[in-house]
Design a protein that fits this description.
It contains four helices and no strands. It has 120 residues and is mostly helical. The longest helix has 30 residues. It starts with 12 loop residues before the first helix and ends with a helix.
Length: 120
């Protein structure tokens, strides 16, 4: 039996591992988010109620962690699909990776900015 190494043309080992780790992080943080939102801080959804929830740093940390994990997991999954079916050249792969990094960082900054309104 021959073991195959996960090479860079199929995505690489670190993105593969990151996909597995972020899957666990997404599951845990979404469960914490749903528990905090629907069971711990249940009430009428209005500005003051949401501002009160987000005044707790644990909620903000959980939401930011969830945001980062979801963005990485989604864009890395998209990257793997595109590498499997479309991009085989190294230069095209690098350009695509750079574009995904820009999109991901932009999405995370936008998400944190949207949360920032509630915590300031």
């Amino acid at each position: 039996m021959r073991l195959e190494v996960i090479d860079r043309s199929k995505g690489g080992m670190w993105p593969w591992l990151g996909q597995r780790v972020t899957a666990v992080v997404v599951i845990v943080t979404i469960l914490v988010h749903l528990t905090l939102t629907h069971y711990v801080a249940a009430g009428k959804l209005d500005f003051n109620n949401i501002a009160g929830r987000l005044a707790d740093r644990a909620v903000v940390v959980n939401d930011v962690l969830l945001l980062v994990a979801v963005v990485y997991h989604a864009l890395n999954g998209l990257r793997m699909v595109v590498l499997d079916y479309a991009l085989s050249g190294t230069s095209a792969r690098h350009v695509f990776d750079a574009a995904l990094w820009v999109i991901g960082i932009g999405a995370i900054i936008y998400g944190i900015w949207a949360l920032w309104v509630w915590v300031v």
